[in-house]
Amino acid sequence: MIDAVQHRPAGHLVLVFDDESRVREYMKTILQSAGMQVLEAGDGVEALEVFRVSKERIDLVIADIRMPRMTGTDLANSIRSDDPTTPVILVSAEGTPADIIDPGNGVLFIEKPFAPKVLLEAANQFLDRSVRM
Predict the structure, then answer these.
(1) Of 67 and 45, the one with more pLDDT
(2) 3, 45, 87, 119: least CB-packed within 10 angstroms?
């Protein structure tokens, strides 16, 4: 059961990309249980295409770092170039990419495996302050 305090950012649209469908489904379930809408992508190129089509509506991107066709850090850099207001949460079991992580500049890192509360707290860090139309 997810802590009710974590349900605040209802209605936000989040793009989740991970090449492992079970990990995407895990994140999707957590986010949807908190009232968020979720778009999914299975690799970085697909995620960038989805982002570019829907960027006016996407409030947050959550990306695995190790991905086929485009890494999560490359995706984060592309997204931040296209729209510097879109926050990105990078996830990985292999440690933090210190060169890109800057919560004050819209990029955060969480280590896999993570509990639902950790993902929601990271999302809330950005979504609580987002004022996107």
Answers:
(1) 45
(2) 3
SS3 110: strand
**Beta strands 88-92 and 107-111: pairing type?**
parallel
- Residues 79-120: tens digit of each pLDDT: 989 999 999 999 998 866 655 666 567 888 999 999 999 999
Q: What is the pLDDT of residue 101?
A: 61
The count of structural domains within the chain is: 1
Residues near 18 by beta carbon (within 8 Å), at least 6 away in sequence: 24, 27, 42, 63, 64, 67, 91
Residue 82 lies in a domain: yes
Residue among 80, 32, 85 nearest 72 (CA): 80
What local confidence, expressed as pLDDT, does residue 5 receive?
37
Amino acid 8: pLDDT? 41
The CATH number given to whatever domain includes residue 99 is 3.40.50.2300
Determine the structural domain holding residue 107 and report its residue range. Answer: 4-127
Residue 86 lies in a domain: yes
Would you say residue 63 lies in a domain? yes
Go through the chain and tell me how many residues it has: 133
